């Protein structure tokens, strides 16, 4: 049971069977999202992320999923997102970026496709982009100072912070009437062409995040300074962006 899968598909059957057995008729959907859904899963490094949609009665029995969650952690399955359809519908004005990213790359494993017909209002997406960028920029600066300039601390900060900004970049794609980026390479191309961000910098940050490149101690601080500067540039750009409700 503890074997980490070489491919996410190896666990779909067993995982789905156990979730179905636990929740029965209260289970509406099992959806794969994240790196595994984008085809970027790296064995032993990537988590496998599932969204589990339950009825209102099912979500009230959430405590029954504790043992299942702990068991599947051993196979690199992250703690699933447990949601209801009502939660999804009522969150599109407050958390549109999260659901926009879910819809960009996902795979229906079981049940009803609750993401297929979701629509998003640009006004709400832009508002969350501005809020997230300004808040995360302050946090990035603070966390940068707290690293003390140590290489290993900066590497950890890159791994922790970069996925959040990539999610925001997907939302900016939507605001610019572009098709969703199916992978990091497409996203980086958009960042260079439409946002005038330093693609080389973000490519390097992504390689560090994925463990494909080691960060030299001599460049750690300057790399982070450039990272912060690029996020500030994007924050200023979004602050001046005007959009109409859709």
Summarize the structure in words:
By secondary structure, the protein is an alpha+beta fold. The chain folds into two domains: 9-111, Beta Polymerase, domain 2; 122-239, Four Helix Bundle (Hemerythrin (Met), subunit A) (Up-down Bundle), CATH 1.20.120. 54% of the residues lie in helices and 9% in strands. The chain contains ten helices and four strands; from the N terminus they run αββααβααβααααα. It has helices at residues 9-23, 56-59, 66-73, 85-91, 96-104, 122-146, 151-175, 184-193, 199-209, 220-239; strands at residues 27-33, 49-54, 81-83, 106-111. Strands 3-2-1-4 form a four-stranded mixed sheet. Helix 7 packs across helix 9. The longest helix has 25 residues, at 122-146. The radius of gyration is 19 Å and the shape is globular. The model has no long low-confidence stretch (mean pLDDT 92).
What tags apply to this protein structure?
2 domains; 10 helices; Beta Polymerase, domain 2; globular; alpha+beta; 246 residues; Four Helix Bundle (Hemerythrin (Met), subunit A)
Sum this structure up briefly.
The chain is α+β, with helices and mostly antiparallel strands and 246 residues long. The chain has helices spanning 9-23, 56-59, 66-73, 85-91, 96-104, 122-146, 151-175, 184-193, 199-209, 220-239; strands at residues 27-33, 49-54, 81-83, 106-111.
Q: Which secondary structure elements does this structure contain, and how are they paired or packed?
A:
Elements: H1 9-23, E1 27-33, E2 49-54, H2 56-59, H3 66-73, E3 81-83, H4 85-91, H5 96-104, E4 106-111, H6 122-146, H7 151-175, H8 184-193, H9 199-209, H10 220-239
Parallel strand pairs: 2-3
Antiparallel strand pairs: 1-2, 1-4
Helix pairs in contact: 5-7, 6-7, 6-10, 7-8, 7-9, 7-10
